[in-house]
User: Which sequence fits this backbone?
């Protein structure tokens, strides 16, 4: 009996460790976007076999899915790499946005006051991001405006990052706390895009959104916007 009890204890401890590691794998995908098994293994210091086991478990729980890695330019020889990305169910393990209640409320608002009321509400919702952005800009006016925007968004749970792109930068949001709501009410995405354009003083282009089934919300920021806003933040020299 004692031997069985010890076995149960060891098995339970192993289950806890597995759950913790699965959470780390999911967190890495959340923060970095769609990732290959090799990338995850390198980031987390795990063996390829261990990563495959945890990816298999997360797939069975329908918290992640996979697709062929997109290749820009000429594809090399060999089998295309597979990347893993979070599903809506996987994202729900990080944040609970009370989607059903929010959707019902917005449906009622739209029915009684019209679609424009939903747009106004969406614009007001992003007011806190704008306020945080302005405060950060005042604290460090020479810092890249896009970096400041990414920090302001991350504080709101969007897990934002920046990566270089041709003719500019890409602002990537690896999580959207209101993805389900935005899928039915695109005014939220539209208001967010307009906010980015206004804060950066330039037209921006939304390339992908989680609400439409993409792994990451991606917005292209042209080089001119980055340079223009940086110059505005730097006072002219001379007397």
Assistant:
């Amino acid at each position: 009996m004692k031997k069985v009890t010890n076995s149960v204890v060891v098995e339970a401890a192993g289950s806890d460790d597995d759950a913790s590691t699965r959470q780390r794998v999911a967190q890495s995908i959340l923060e970095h976007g769609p990732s290959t098994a090799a990338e995850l293994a390198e980031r987390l210091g795990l063996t390829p076999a261990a990563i495959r086991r945890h990816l298999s478990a997360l797939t069975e729980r329908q918290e992640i899915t996979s697709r062929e890695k997109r290749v820009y330019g000429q594809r090399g020889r060999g089998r295309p790499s597979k990347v893993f990305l979070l599903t809506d169910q996987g994202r729900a393990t990080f944040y609970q946005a009370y989607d059903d209640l929010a959707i019902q409320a917005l449906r009622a608002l739209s029915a009684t006051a019209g679609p424009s009321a939903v747009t106004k509400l969406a614009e007001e919702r992003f007011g806190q991001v704008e306020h945080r952005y302005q405060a950060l800009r005042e604290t460090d006016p020479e810092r890249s405006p896009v970096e400041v925007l990414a920090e302001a968004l991350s504080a709101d749970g969007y897990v934002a990052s920046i990566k270089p792109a041709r003719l500019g930068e890409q602002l990537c949001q690896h999580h959207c706390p209101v993805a389900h709501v935005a899928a039915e009410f695109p005014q939220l995405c539209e208001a967010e895009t307009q906010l980015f354009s206004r804060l950066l003083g330039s037209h921006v282009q939304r390339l992908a959104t989680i609400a439409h089934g993409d792994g990451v919300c991606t917005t292209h920021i042209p080089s001119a916007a980055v340079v223009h806003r940086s110059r505005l933040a730097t006072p002219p020299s001379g007397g």
